[in-house]
Amino acid sequence: MTDFEPKIIGFLCNWCSYAGADLAGVSRFQYPPNMRQIRVMCSGRIHPSFILQAFKEGADGVLVAGCHTPNDCHYISGNFKTERRVAILKKLLEQLGLEPERLRLEWISASEGEKFSKTVLEMTNELRKLGPSPIKEE
Amino acid sequence: MEIADIVFWPVAMDIKYKEVENMLDGYIDVCFFNGAIRNSEQEYLAKLLRRKSKILIAFGACAQLGGIPGLANIFSAEEIFETIYHSTPSTNNTLKIEPNESTKIVEGILELPTFYDEVKPLDKIVQVDYYIPGCPPPPKLIIQAVEAIRSNKLPPKGSILAPEIAVCDECPRKKEDKKISEIKRVLDFVPDSEKCLLEQGIICMGPATRGGCDAKCIQANMPCTGCGGPCPNIEEQGAAMISALSTVLGIGEEKDENYSVNNLISQLKDPLGTFYKYTLPSSIIKKRYKK
Questions:
Q1: Which fold does the domain A8-137 belong to in CATH?
Q2: ipTM value for the complex
Q3: Predicted confidence (pLDDT) per residue in B43-52, tens digit
Q4: CA A111, CA A22: separation in Å to the nearest integer?
Q5: Considering the entire predicted model, what is its pTM?
Q6: Which is the most buried residue in B48, B168, B201, B209, by most CB within 10 A?
Q7: In chain A, which residues have their Cβ closer than 8 Å to the Cβ of B270?
């Protein structure tokens, strides 16, 4: 338990958050290596089943990151849709025995490399405290 | 027209499991198996009937998907017993009696099936050849299935014996602009019987549910609750409906001053019971996990 390192799946939108992650790398901001990034065209592309599947396959946390609301989404309203999906999913996860904090939504723009690295660091620390996902333990 | 003999039908015929055990393997041409697997007796019967039947059909939402009893997967067997035999207000069980798997009495030992922790659909226990969806399966689908068996025109194994359409495709209501600002329930108001229920704010599972039922519930002014299981080409019915609802709920209102995601979503009291009413045991996360 003391050596527990969480595995995080990060769904990052192509236009803002993935570019933000890129900037974090180029700017050499330090952050823990716990997140596996998946680039999607829009945060609105992330089907709720992707997130459930990530948890099923052993993710301790899932980050969904997209463009800032209200006006940054490349596809106008994808981020709003994902915001509502994540809100419903958090309630659902709670009913299924997973802490809703394991699912996190952040708006990270292409210029926010620092916010990206801070988000990953915060999330990793929180998940270290929460411990492994109960799904993985079984 | 006589096309078959009924050899086993526990609810209608007086027949013992022993008589099925004595049949040759593959003796039964077709078995319609209803109900999910929750205890050892059901598992035994599923395995027995699989062996004795040439074709095994999961009949109805419980056998196909786990069904409504599958919602109990958010509780363990222990918690269920605690509620049923001890904690409900009308229960008076001062002796703390619970059913045991075996009880010694003067005449010998009485045995009860083992009650499992989890409800499982039939195909998690044995190989299933076909599925007939619905809670209950619509007579039309049953007749079509029997007809297909009789004329030897069954589709490839693994098929669901229902049309490849969504409930919305069969729904006669007028569908216009999918855009709602609040979630309502049928007990809040009498919905317009001509207009799409989802557009009136009622969560209707039609967009995520396989058709074949002629949208019977919707024609009675009640929303679809999803007994047909996932639409063709989607895996997770609940997730698909969460996605669909999130797309239409509050769309275009996000820049309003008093728009709040939390207020919108707090109207949704029971996501699991709404979106996974019939499918929890066959979905991606099949039960409640405990630390």
A1: Rossmann fold (3.40.50)
A2: 0.94
A3: 999 999 999 9
A4: 10
A5: 0.94
A6: B209
A7: 95
